[in-house]
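Q: For a teaching session next week I want to show students how multiple molecules come together into a single three-dimensional assembly. I've collected the sequence lines for a complex. Could you give me the predicted structure tokens for the whole thing so I can convert them for display?
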Amino acid sequence: MTDLDVAKAQARAPRLPGDRPAPVPALEVSDLVVEFGTGESATRVVNGIGFSIAPGESFALVGESGSGKSITAASILGLLPDDARIASGSIRLGGDELVGLGSNALRSYRGARVGMVFQNPLASLDPSFKVGNQLREIIRIHRPDVRRARQEQIAREWLGHVGIADAPRVLAAYPHELSGGMRQRVMIAIASLSQPALLIADEPTTALDAVIQKQILDLLRSVIAETGSSLLIITHDFGVVSYVANRVAVMKEGRLVEQGPRASVLSAPREQYTRTLIDAVPEIGTRFALERAGQPRRLGVRAGTSSCAAPEDAAAVAIGAEAVSAEGEHTASAPIPAPPILTADRVRKEFVVGGIGTGQSKRSFLAVDEVSLEIRRGEVFGLIGESGSGKSTFARLAGGLLPVSGGAVDFAGAPLSALKGRSLRALRPRFQYVFQDATSSLNPRVTVGEQIVRPVVRFGKARSVREGRARASEVLDLVGLPASYFERYPHELSGGQRQRIGIARALALEPELLILDEPTSALDVSTQATILNLLLDLRERLDLTYLFIGHNLAVIEFVCDRIGVLEAGRLVDVFDAPDLFSPERSAVTRSLLGAILPIERSATTLLRGSSADMSPSL
Amino acid sequence: MGTLKHIGWRLANILPVLLIVSVLTFLIGRLTPGDPIQGQYARTFTPEQIEAIRDSYGLNLPLWQQYVKWVADLFVAGGGKSIVQDAPVFDVLWPNFLNTIVLTVAGVLICAVVGITIGTIAGANHRRAADRFSMLFVQVGSNLSVYWFGLILIWIFALQLKWLPVSGMQSRNGGGFGDLLAHLILPGISAALISMLVLARFTRIGIVQESHSDYYKTFQSQGAGRFSLLGKHVGRNILPPVVNIIGLEIGTLLTGVLFVESVFNWPGIGTQLLNAVNGKDYPLIQGGVVLIALVYLVVNLVTDIAVDALNPRLKR
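A: Of course. Below is the structure for the complete assembly, covering every listed component.
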């Protein structure tokens, strides 16, 4: 019986009250209130929530950023930030009350009874010590009696458990020498080596690629099956919920909106909010289902529902409504022989590291290896690959942000990669970038309006600052933000709003091509949906061409007309979106396809119209 | 192997700096207005005698030849002859230079120990009373001037409490190492004050930042104690910036020492250079500047090598 079977069996067999004495829950949270600050100014971030997790159960706590889900997880072991505190309520771990315990008493529960895996594997190991040292330290905490040789052995065994084959190399490595997925495996080993009764995973895969995400989730499932731990997984993605959880609780603004078994929440959510979150997950085939149903291609727009708005910003509502009322969508996936706007001809990019003054020997690696492709005017071209496949490097080459090492890039007939200085600058307003990290791509000390105006004036798109301001309020309107946002600073905006500013800044120059480098990878699934809808909407209104870089095939398939797949710098596959399932697809494409976490709805979903076609068997 | 290569590279980097320093030092001496031989003694000399003196010191040669001769003198002739004291410059400077180094080392030790301690107390008690109090002390202390602070220390500890000597390096009737230490405390603290507070700030910020890092949470969630979290993980991760700051602050501290010497009547190179400037004794000034520049370079070199050695990304 595999771990999956165990999970299924547990989901299938609910314990009936009175059947036998109910086992003590692994975790029981009741009426929990967490506040930031004290007295009058205190703000409640967790407001009276309660749930319980049975032994061996996988429980998902779902919500958008700011919903209080991570604070809930942190409060269990008393790991709240300095200015936050548990105001009232109870947290019982296997029957022991944890609220009110001093930090010394809590310490005996940390690690030993509850293990935690955090979101960012790149930062959750100490960068200054070797992995082996860190593992041994943790083994020493839990088993102070064992000798060093035995510690070493336990560490090696656990690396084996988490699927690391070359344990000696990993133990002798510093964290920076390991990939993100590898580090998350080490983290899982650290969290579970004391075989705790409860494993808390706080967005364990949000920072990872789709392919790695699935591996890590598989690993979590097998580890809890092996150790018999319960799992509390914090996530914003219903795809993850569908893949690992037995039961789900949905959190919004510090309160639980609803909770229940996975199947019933996924297939028949009682709350509109839950439905919005579920519908925000892009799924393979959704666009074609919508097409057949005569609906515009927007996430969250389902037959019978007109809401596509994520609750995060009301602006999305306006866009959604507009989208619905827009006249029939033109089918861009039909092969219209449009002229190419961007042509890459055997483009190479070699990076040289080391050399004089670095103490390292000089070596080079090929980030982009002879990539040739054509982006046609008016299409959305998707470029997908795992991290390190060279997709972001290619994006930079395509817009002349990096010089090519070989080959050529042409933009609308101009030899972009051969141009320099003034002539390259003259071309720049015609293609613009939107980056993944909306926060760091905005200047924190300049109002967002000013950041839109500056390039407009600089490139001569407006003759005066006043004209630039007029243009800025136009584009703010285009991206669904009120003109009053002009005077705000980036930190006053939410992640989704910041990305809208990033898009507005690009659009202000009236570009023909937008290069979107993972524009939604850092966002919640619900925010991602509003941004994707916005991008689709803008493309129709403004006749834009997109080069869309991503690592999630479901997103790429939903947005793009043609898709290119990169692996280790090489373009291994190019195809039209409808041909995704064609047998000619490369192994890489198929592994990306296999990494998608579809939302498994039960049969009742079939009654809900077009969504029946949305979960193809993979 | 990489490490040795790296150190070699750092050493090689020093050569151009040395060249620039030597040229600048040389020019400082030659381009400043005033002439040692036109001072008050000159009135008693005939023009022929003055010419002879100028010739004997090479002051009539073209500038570049003077430079070459000067550099050569640094190596073979003890930095040339002091105009006022009629002895090789380095022979004149050396004993006082050692005294300055003694005071500087004492200052650096006080700076490192007290600075890191204050910073650790503040950082480990972030936003609590101990932190607020330490930072108040740091705020106030940063605004004191070295002169004033030194005098206040003398007044309190030497004149009122009579715990420590007022000035100088040794008691009149001599005395051993203990006597030296007693003389070192007040000037050491005065010289270290500003750098110590800078270091305290950096240590505090480093501890606060590292305590909010993800790896801290990892070990905290595994039940690691506060001592091991602060001592091992935070300590190791703030070590490179702390070493860097200490290295930078040694320079500041050395500048402070030159002033402190005059307050505490410490027989160091600072006092000597002050006299040399008054007497327009170019060779002595230049020799002193070269010595101090060498200290800066060595400190920077050692700091760079230490910081590199602490960076796991530069290993293997």
